[in-house]
Amino acid sequence: MAGNYYRSVSLVFLILIVVVDISNGENTTELDGVWQKRAVEAKEAALHAYEPNPTSVTDHLNGEVHRATDGRNSTRRDLHKYNGPCTATNPIDQCWRCQSNWAENRMRLADCAMGFGRKTTGGKGGKIYVVIDSSDNDLVNPKPGTLRHAVIQKGPLWIIFKQSMTIKLSEELIMTSDKTIDGRGAQVHIAYGAGITLQFIKNVIIHNVKIHDTKAGNGGLIRDSVDHYGYRSKSDGDGISIFGSTNVWIDHVSMSNCQDGLIDAIQAATAITISNCHFTHHNEALLFGASDSSKEDEVMQITIAFTHFGQGIIQRMPRVRWGFVHIVNNDYTHWLMYAVGGSKHPTILSQGNRYIAPPNAFAKEVTKRDYAAESEWKNWVWKSDGDLMMNGAFFVQSGDPKHVFASGADMIKPKPGSFVNQLTKFAGVLNCVPGKPC
Fold first, then answer.
1. Torsion of CA 229, 232, 238, 240, to 10 degrees
2. Quick count: other Cβ atoms within 10 Å of Cβ 130?
3. Cystine design at 103: which of 25, 138, 269, 434 (Cβ 3.0–4.6 Å)?
C-alpha cells in the first residue's frame, strides 16, 4: 500500500530539524511552506493535464499502432514501417529506434511519447548532464557527477551515463521537474537501495534503466532541490513512486523485486504513460490510486502499452482506484492471483492484450474487484475489446453493456491480442550501441 508521502513530522523530529538545520538558515515553517507551495502547484498542473475526452487519446494510440503494423505512410512523427537491421515493431519505438544517430540526437526521444503521457518532453531543450559517479554518499550536498546531483538541478536537463554502473541509493532519489533519465548506451542498474520519487513535479521521462531490489529508506535530511533540503520520513521501497505528479513517461524500463510496489501513482498523479517495460518477480506490481477515500484520484489517467508482465508476477497489473486506465497491447504471460483489479469505480479499458492464465484453476479470471458487492461493481465500466484469452483466461466485464467510449464508427479498434508478441518483442531495457540503430 502507498505510504504517508506527505512526510508529516512529529514534534521530536521538528526539534531535530531546528537543531540540525540551523546552519542553513531554515526553520520548520519555511520547510513546510516549500512543500505546501509545491502541492498547490501540482494540483493546478493535474487539472490542466486532465484530458476531458480520454477516448481521443486511446483512439490516437490505436491508430498509430495500425499505421506501424500495416506499413502505411509516415505520420507527423515520421512513423513508418522500417526494413533492414532495425526491427522496431510498435509506433513508439519506430519513432526513434531505427535512427543510427540516436546518441547524437537523444532528445528526439521526447517527440515519441503516446497515450496519456503524450505531452511529456522531460529534459528536452536543456543541457546534457553526464553521470560519471555511481556513489550516493551525501544526501544534503550531493557530489557533482552523481545521479542525485543531476536530478535536483534547475530547469530542463537530459541525464545520461558515461559508462555502465549500479547505483545504490542511500535514500529515496527526489527528482525535480523537466528531467530525463536516459540509460541508453550503458547498462544502468538502480538497485539494492532506495527508489525514485516524483513528488509534486511534472514533465519527467525515465528511460532504459533497470530498477530492482529496492528497499525502504530510513529517511532523514535529504536535498530535494538546489535551494532546499528537509527531513523525510521513511520511504516505502517502491521502485518508482509518482505522487501528485503529471506528464510522466516511463519507457523501456525493466523492474523486479522491489520491497513495496514496482510503480505507484497516487494523490492526483495523472497524464502518465508506461510503455515497452518488462516486469518480473514481484507481488504487488502497479498501484494506481492511494486509497478508497482519495477522491482526488478521479483525475488520474494512465496508459499501459506494449509492456510484458512476465515470470513471477503475482497481482496488480495494475490495481486501480477512481481514475481511467487504458491497458493496450500488453503481454500477460504470467500471474499467480489475478492481472487487473480495482475498487472505487475506476474506468478500465483493456484492448488488444494477450492474457495467458496460470495452470491454477482458481486463478483463471483476469479481473478482481475489491471491497464492493456485485450490486455495486456491476456499474463500474470495465471493458475488454480485442483481447486474446488463452489457457482458460476470462475477463469479467461490467458497466452498461451499451456503453461505448466513442460514437460507434468513430472509435478506432485496437490491434487484436494476436499481434502482442510482435508489439512487445523488445520490451524492457535495450542494448543500444552508439552509431547503430538501437
1. -20
2. 12
3. 434
Q: In 3D, which of 150, 90, 88 has the Cα closest to residue 273?
A: 90
Note the pTM of the prediction, 2 decimals: 0.90
**C-beta atoms surrounding 308 within 10 Å:** 25
Q: What is the DSSP letter of 14?
A: H
Cell numbers at 403, concatenated: 456503453
User: Is the model's pLDDT at 151 over the cut of 60?
Assistant: yes
Does position 8 have pLDDT exceeding 90, yes or no?
no
pLDDT at residue 26, as a whole number = 32
330 closest CA partner among 263, 383, 277 = 277
Active-site residue identified among 316, 319, 354, 369: 316
pLDDT 10s digits, 243-271: 999 999 999 999 999 999 999 999 999 99
Ordered DSSP codes for 129-153: EEE-B-----SSSPPTTBHHHHHTS
Decide: 233 and 152 in contact? Cβ < 8 Å. Answer: no
Helices 28-49 and 11-21, axial angle in degrees (round to 10): 110
Q: Does residue 316 have an active-site annotation? A: yes
pLDDT of residue 406: 65
